[in-house]
Amino acid sequence: MWEYTDKVKEHFLNPRNVGELEDADGVGEVGSMACGDALKLAFKLDENGNIADVKFQTFGCASAIASSSALTELLKGKSLAEAEELTNDDIAAYLGGLPKEKMHCSVLGRDALKKAILNYRGETEAAPEGNLVCECFGVTDKQIEDTVRENGLRSVEDVTSYIKAGGGCENCHQDIEGIIRRVHQQTGDAAPGPRKLTNIQKIKLVEETLEREIKPALRKDGGDIELVDVDGGTVYVKLIGTCANCSASELTLKNYVEEKLRELVTPELRVEEVRQ
Amino acid sequence: MSRMIYMDNNATTRVAPEVVEAMTPFFSEYYGNPSSMHTFGGTVGRKIAEAREKTAALINANPDEIIFTSCGTESDSTAIWAALKANPQKRHIVTTRVEHPAVKNLCEHLEKTGYRVSWVPVDREGRLDLDFLYDSLTDDTAIVSVMWANNESGVIFPVEQIARATAERGIVFHTDAVQAAGKVPVDVKASPVNMLSLSGHKIHAPKGVAALYVKKGTKFSPFLIGGHQEKGRRGGTENVASIIGLGRAAELAAAHLQDGTGHVRGLRDKLEAGILENISNTLLNGDPNMRLPNTVSVSFEYVEGEAILLMMDQLGICASSGSACTSGTLEPSHVLRAMGVPFTAAHGSVRLSLSMYTTEQEVDFVIRELPPIIERLRRMSPFWKGASCNLQ
């Protein structure tokens, strides 16, 4: 069973703003039944150009319905300029987070919004740029590249969670890996030194790396690690379980934890252990 | 939980009270090791022998042809590895596209390590392409592994026919009968398979115990090498209480088959008819004439399975789905896709599987509560244009 937040469940069971909108100013449709989820979003503007009403129709799982509902709530009263700033992360954050495998539901919302705004302006969406990489879900290299860059994705699995590419026949996995490598090389080349992270981004990334990479490895040996604080370039952690009493804990900390965080977050990090 | 209507018996079953009763003394009263020399352990050994007789009787086998294992997956793995080791020069495996992951993923793994695998397809109703199967058999074929009945569609395969064809050619035949045992008559003398897997928790015994039938004379080598338990065919101290439980459950299942499975079949038919009559644009998955009596698999067009399951869950109804979203992958179940169920319908599939504990009130409740759920989700769906709409 998926671990949905209460907010996701609540929005799934009592979705806001379901239905069609007559005389809509902008309508956006994304996804298909074959893909497993689809969303139709319609909005109406008031005399000041702010979103007065917004409605959705969704075919999909609980998190797709909840993401659509959240999106409509986020949009109400916003100007188009503000609406354009909305990201899939905002949708996920509004719901208190989504399981990683369900992030594509929030991406679906953002895409429908983009399309609806284009529709309002009378523009048609340019065909997705680039070459088709994932034939199963019709995703191009350009789309994968953008998503990898925007969300700092590191693995094929991440890419699949966000835009489904690679989730079908798996024939394109090598291509996706190539794109990920290329993007990270480029970001490395483009900005001399590490990529600039805000404090919040840094903390989030440290947390993610601990959860995804470091904790599972330590748990295999019966240990664990807890994040205590992040202060500037210093990450304070507490070692737990067998790690706490392990004579090699200093080595674990410097050679493994610090190395991993430097590799995946930013090279200027230092790890310090907090002892009780 | 306040009210719970359990219609997911192909996933797992409630342990029968009679089974719990039979098991209970074997935790802190008769806790001896059956391998021990003393009388205390020997008593336990005799009880295991009885459980073996009862398990064998369920499938008309001889007791010494039964090996107790820890799960259906272990039984399947043991069977397939044993056949491959017995014929190291043979590098070909025949199986189906709709096997349980216990067989499917193992065969995919073997494919990567150099074995050639023929994947027998099924038709729209989930029936095996027997010609394909027979044409695949070669002198290089080490094993044929075909499930007795499919867990998702409930379709029963012609195991007897396949067993005769493979026997004629001297090819080892294994069948995963985890879904069939206890639900339909399974007779290894009438259907001369070489090996057969069955699992406790599908027949009201606990999780963590299963059996592998190995026909006398079949070349065998153990998967778990260790002590002399199970006559050296499966090392490891016996899971005594659970084995006793499996024996008792097998006995109950045999009695249940004797009395006829009319009760379960009747309720399933009522449930199925009730769903198909009250909900438009619903497809039945699987051959209606050759199905497990407890299983109904349907696809609701225009809606997605996970959403249906979670709404049912709100009412305490437990079921499962072949939808992509329930599995953590992006594609609907390999079984429904092999059957050629269109993606558009496969995403909205729901499987309800009954047991002898299912009541008519529960069936009536589901028939009453399911239509509004589908209706509600369809009203949310951008593709739904009313009951008469057809998929493009």
Would you mind describing this structure in some detail?
The complex is a heterodimer of chains A (276) and B (392). In chain A, helix 1 crosses helix 2 and helix 6 (141-151) crosses helix 8. Chain A has 276 residues and is α+β, with helices and mostly antiparallel strands. In chain A, strand 4 and strand 5 (139-140) form a beta hairpin. Chain A folds into 3 domains: 6-120, Alpha-Beta Complex (Sufe protein. Chain: A), CATH 3.90.1010; 132-190, BFD-like [2Fe-2S]-binding domain (Arc Repressor Mutant, subunit A); 199-273, Fe-S cluster assembly (FSCA) (GMP Synthetase, Chain A, domain 3). Chain A is elongated. Chain A has a 3-stranded antiparallel β-sheet. Helix content of chain A is 48%, strand content 18%. Chain A has helices spanning 6-13, 62-75, 80-85, 88-94, 103-120, 141-151, 156-163, 173-190, 199-220, 242-245, 249-264, and strands at 26-32, 37-45, 51-59, 132-134, 139-140, 223-231, 234-241, 270-273. With 392 residues, chain B is of the alpha/beta class. Chain B folds into 2 domains: 17-257, Type I PLP-dependent aspartate aminotransferase-like (Major domain) (Aspartate Aminotransferase, domain 2, 3-Layer(aba) Sandwich), CATH 3.40.640.10; 261-380, Alpha-Beta Complex (Aspartate Aminotransferase, domain 1), CATH 3.90.1150. Helices cover 40% and strands 14% of the residues of chain B. In chain B, the strands form 3 sheets. Chain B has a 7-stranded mixed β-sheet with strand order 2-8-7-6-5-3-4, sandwiched between helices. In chain B, helix 3 runs parallel beside helix 8 (240-259). Chain B is globular, with a radius of gyration of 22 Å. The relative contact order of chain B is 0.16. Classes of the chains: A alpha+beta (276), B alpha/beta (392). Chain A binds chain B through residues 2, 9, 12-13, 15, 18, 29, 33-34, 36-40, 57-62, 64-65, 101-102, 136-137, 160, 164, 167-168, and chain B through 302-307, 310-311, 314, 323-326, 328-332, 343-344, 347, 379-383, 391.
